[in-house]
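Example record

One chain of 105 residues, shown exactly as stored in the release files.
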Amino acid sequence: MTTTDQNPRTKGQVVSLPNDMPSEEPVSPPGRLHGLSIAGMAVSALVGIAALFAFITINWPGSSSRYVMIAFIAAGVAFMTFASTAVLTAARDTYSRERSSTSNK
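Predicted structure tokens for this chain:
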């Protein structure tokens, strides 16, 4: 007795699929703007972490700490901007686009 004979549910239930399955278009790689957005997210996250770390650990004289907090808030705004750009460009890249011809008609 083989292992397939021991399981009564799999006996005789093999269905072959047709070979004429529709072919899908190849997926295009992410665009340049998507890559730049991800790089911008990384840079702004590092700047924000460094600014917050500097604000917490260093006793800044006078109003210098205000500039550090401005850098932290600007890095947060930049991160959110780059994140939304990355999401929107990734969504745009999921749809197929027809290539436009360069000739004028």
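Notes: The chain is about 55% helix and 0% strand.
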